[in-house]
Amino acid sequence: MSDDIQTLGTLNNMWLVEPDWSGEIQSNFIPSYDLIQCAGSVGALWVNNYDAPRRIQYQYRNATKAEEKALLDFFEARLGRHGCFWMPTWMTDFVVINDIAASDTVINVKNNAFSSVCKGYERIAFILTSGDIIVRKISAATFISADQENITLTTSVDRIIATTDIALCCLFLLVRFEKDNLQFSYTTDSVSDVEFNVYELIREYP
Do the beta carbons of residue 126 and residue 133 sit within 8 Å? Predict the structure, then answer.
């Protein structure tokens, strides 16, 4: 079939290239507060947002100059850290435990306490063994038992998805690059490696 990416609103820039799996994806949460203090006064913490955005580090290996140019063109089109875009976390955020019918809007997943933090703006990506990517918006997450949660989608998927068809089920984040430059290291004239961080834009989800 083909990709079926919906419910992104008007923000449709995406980076869907798989990272270099030989390097570990590193993820952490960034406290969203600032220390405010004038000279000679007592400092105070100003909370910008009680939700902590994610910062994720990816490593990419460009086997050809064409792959390197594709990344550079995308980075330049975003104006470095200025423009936002969507991308999968490429991490196992959910484990689907039952097959999904084409009309289903409720997905059964292993309990990972997502129901306690779901905000209703998140997107979920089903990355299939065929290479297709399906993205839907999550409207709710419900605790069922110690072993199961239910994820409710705003719209149903467009096909039957067996659990064996799913290579990875993860969040689909709205992010920006964290820096205005990319630093490449070269193995040969045509093979290069690059690492970059992205920063989740928790205030800008449509």
Answer: yes
